[in-house]
Design brief:
The protein is mainly alpha-helical. The chain has 11 helices and no strands. It has a single domain, classed as Serine Threonine Protein Phosphatase 5, Tetratricopeptide repeat (Alpha Horseshoe). Helix content is 67%, strand content 0%. The protein binds adenosine-5'-diphosphate and magnesium ion. Adenosine-5'-diphosphate binds next to α3, α5 and α9.
């Protein structure tokens, strides 16, 4: 029970950190989108996550319900390409967290998120979209947990590094999906906004995971009873 409380507290903290970060980066993301799109990505993501905070405030049920509500808020509030892609994929992947937040369930969440993103958007790696950041992040996270047996925090740190390389990889690409594809070769030399917001979100998830898994949590701020989240160890009891 306490474990679920901590997971819920960690989730709320993560959503707050992401919302704060996207508010800070609003102008930057909009600048990126003005170069190869319609200059709304920063406003979209900021508005979307402010709505997430409103819609999830005070929720204390299952972690998967909170994540689902967050996806729903993004889906309903953010239009354009990014809203359905982020919101719909988060919603559909949220069921993977029905058993709580563990190394195993977060790998499943990440894989399903990528799968749904590609089902909806139809983009492959190399088309200059958020898929270019999500794909290496998900593959690196899964490999780090399942093959390299790394602790979730280290696996997530490696996933963030992989996402960052993915973001840099978008710069020289010619966009062949989404609004940026209308520019054809003129999209070359610009960093993809959606890949960049993906990286920011992952960085904030890592920052939050560090606070909670390293025990730096201030219980007064986050209402948590214990600064630990079960990782692989939780499975060993079964
Ligand atoms: P819009 O393009 O409708 O204005 P946003 O500006 O909020 O929406 O989001 C743009 C971002 O959406 C792009 O930078 C790209 O990463 C992502 N994107 C667009 N189309 C796709 C797609 N088909 N698959 C994956 N990501 C996409
Ligand atoms: Mg746009």
């Amino acid at each position: 029970m306490a474990d679920t409380d901590v997971q819920v507290a960690a989730l709320h903290a993560a959503l707050e950190n992401v919302a704060d970060r996207l508010a800070e980066e609003k102008t930057y993301l909009t600048d990126l989108d003005s170069a190869i799109g319609d200059a709304d990505h920063g406003a979209n993501m900021n508005r979307g996550f402010q709505t997430v905070l409103e819609q999830t405030a005070g929720m204390d049920g299952d972690p998967s319900e909170i994540v689902k509500a967050a996806g729903k808020a993004i889906l309903s509030e953010v239009g354009g390409a990014a809203g359905p892609l982020y919101g719909g994929s988060i919603m559909m992947a949220s069921g993977e967290l029905d058993e709580g937040i563990t190394a195993e369930t977060t790998v499943a969440f990440a894989e399903t998120y990528l799968e749904k993103l590609q089902d909806r958007g139809g983009a492959e790696v190399g088309q200059k979209t958020m898929v270019d950041a999500v794909t290496p992040a998900v593959h690196t996270y899964k490999k780090s947990i399942e093959q390299d047996d790394l602790p979730p925090l280290e696996a997530l740190a490696k996933a963030v590094d992989a996402a960052e390389r993915g973001v840099n990889f978008t710069v020289p690409l010619r966009a062949t999906k989404g609004r940026a594809s209308y520019l054809g070769w003129r999209s070359v030399g610009h960093q993809d906004p959606g890949a960049t917001s993906t990286l920011f979100i992952l960085e904030e998830l890592l920052k939050t995971a560090r606070e909670f898994l390293d025990g730096d949590l201030d219980p007064d701020t986050h209402d948590a009873t214990s600064p630990t989240i079960p990782d692989d160890g939780a499975d060993e009891e079964a």
